[in-house]
User: What shape does this take?
Amino acid sequence: MSTPAPTSTAFGDGPLSRAAALIHTMVTVEALLLVAAAPGLAGLLLLGADASNLPLAAVCLLPLGPALSAALYALHHRDRDLTDLHPARTYWRGWRLNALPSLKLWAPLLAWLTVIAFTLTHFSATGLPGWWAVLLGAVGAGSLLWGAHALVLTSLFTFRARDTARLSGYFLLRHGRATLGAASLLVLAAGLTALLTEALPALLAAPLLLSLLHSSRPVIAETQEDFTA
Assistant: This one.
């Protein structure tokens, strides 16, 4: 009785092929993210570092929200098979689906953060006690973490804006590890900006977003199980 020959791994299924597929997807998504956000990023380069330009900087950052949302969508739905990769198609599908929903949360978040940043940069003129500055900084940090959860939920699920806002607030404390993961990525991005160059976080957006997806797995799993039909 002859023993059957071992089944060979098909092309595109091996670890090297999966690694190549991931790298190809990351590079493509990074390039498309920069293209989608280019109008606003170009405007930022023309602005000076003066605090009076903060409202204009917020306007320039508006295209970044849909660009980040589309990148998260493309990375979450990426193909693992090297023989069947369509990251560009997936990215633009995510942009079409999520541009308006993400802006409904991204624009108010930018406006709120601009108010906080403008107040802190002109704090001496407010006449407020010093502990208000600490409080405003904490509120700004919490708003950024809320925004990270909102970005993930908006990119991967179809909820009304107010429901996404509520879920994002709920998950801030519900999944502390996910929130801590988002916080570490924000600190990393801020550190890269302060120590090296403002362009580096943008150039590393794809791996940072992939890390955000990884740390947000409990949030994604609970949303799928408890808040979707």
Observations:
- The longest helix spans residues 87-121.
- The two ends are 52 Å apart (CA to CA).
- The CA atoms of residues 153 and 159 lie 8 Å apart.
- The chain has ten helices and no strands.
